[in-house]
Amino acid sequence: MGKGYSAAIASNPYIVGSFACIGGGLFGLDISSMSGVLSNDAYKNTFGNPTSNAQGAIVAAMPAGSFVGALAVSKLADLIGRKRTIIISGWIWVIGSILQCAAVNRGMLVVGRIISGLSVGIASAIVPLYQSEITEPRIRGRLVAMQQWSITWGILLQYFVEFGCSYIDGDASFRIPWGLQMIPAIILSVGMLFFPESPRWLVDHDRDAEALQILADLHGKGDPNNELVQLEIAEIKEQVNFERTEGAKSYLDLLKPGIFRRVGLGASLQMWSQLSGMNIMMYYIIYVFQGAGLTGRRGNLIADSVQYVLNVVMTIPAIIYIDKWGRRPMLLVGTLLMGFWLFLVGGLQGGFGAWGDIDGDRVWVISGHDGITKAVIVFSYLFVCSFAITMGPVSWTYPAEIFPMRVRAKAVSVSTAANWVFNFALAWAVPPGLSNIAWKTYFIFGTFNFAAFIHIFFMFPETAGRTLEEIEEVFAQGHVFSAWKVKRDTGKKTLQEVKADAKHHDIHEVESHDEKSAA
Questions:
Q1: Structurally, how many domains does the chain consist of?
Q2: CATH number, position 480
Q3: Which Pfam families match (predicted)?
Q4: pLDDT (tens digit, 9 = 90+) per residue, 86-100?
Q5: CA 61 vs CA 36, 52, 57, 360: distances in Å
Q6: What are phi and psi of 51, to 5 degrees?
Q7: Cα 382–426–171 angle (5° rounding)?
Q8: Residues 99-157: pLDDT tens digits?
Q9: Residue 358: left if φ>0, alpha if ψ -120 to 50, beta else—which one?
Q10: pTM of the entire structure?
């Protein structure tokens, strides 16, 4: 630990690349901490039986805080480093959890959720950034995709805790789960003390020797002369030196030619992941199954838990094959399938449902059609499976790898902030939407998925299998509206090619300096 991290931990790419994913799990915990109490009488009584609009506002408090947290990463990550930023996010979550657990009214609950959201926003932006900078290209997509898997695990575990505690009478049925969710954050903040800092951040702060040693421990079994280690350090230095000549690191850099295009891609992908409709199926699945005609609190909870299990299981193939399948095919197939399932759900709801009354609430519900109820539940499951194996993992992986070093922290934070803006809007809008336009809500989200397919087909180039520095060549090719023309081997270089480029860059710098001196 004299290095400030454990070399044994650093030598295992899967441990060093996946542990920080606990930060993603915090988002999952929050989703279930709300979805699991929507039918809890003790929760309703404690917080004044919130209306659909009030409940939407309570849920939306978390993504509101997350928006601020995601933007804060742009400063924190560059100033204090990736590692320390992750540690801070964990302790902020603990504070938010304490406030939620102790909440006695809506105001206190909302404040606690905003603070927890601040933590989730920081973690959701910094964890994929850290993972992309610390893992080798061969498995980068797989490990960044584990961010999504950790979210699904957070949803599942917290939901089962909520399910078990639902048998407890009184406030403890929701306070115990809200209190227990601080444990993973404590593990994250303490555990990260044993992990290395991002070597790319170290090079950018003129700490080349530390960066080389970390790369050696990460990818060269401690040998700084390993070919992959030398390739990476050479590429990182070349890229950082090049970027330093491009101007100051500020938000204005995000508007520069070549960069603005990528900011648009990163932010729009996060936007599409929210507009896909996954919010309905995670936050408000109880309302969805209620509308399908599935009544009874226990039956609904069990049906919900099946969906969360599928979410976890179906993310596994994406983690394993994301670098083999590529980002584009996964996104294109996923958006088509999700749109298809949502149109089926909306069509069945519209064709066989009618306005009814459940627990005093006006609800569009399917009654007397047992087969249709089962079909809606199955199509909802298939929708979640389609998201889990495609859009879910790629929506975190792609924005974390497409930006140059000088703007990466700021650009990733802006992309992630776009996620939280739409998360906030949808978290608030969906309950009133289901209460007013009912089944038409599914058609709206289905249409969003087909729009996303068109956007991705024309404008999103493939990035799998390349170093972060080689991805620069992908975007240098152009093809702004013909992304399918970018080949899978575009940008890939050998160590000799990287060294030749670096030598050419050094010679160019010397000649430029001589010309200025002569002038």
A1: 4
A2: 1.20.1250.20
A3: Sugar_tr (PF00083)
A4: 999 999 999 999 999
A5: 17, 14, 6, 26
A6: -70, 175
A7: 90
A8: 999 999 999 999 999 999 999 999 998 999 899 888 877 888 888 888 889 999 999 99
A9: beta
A10: 0.82
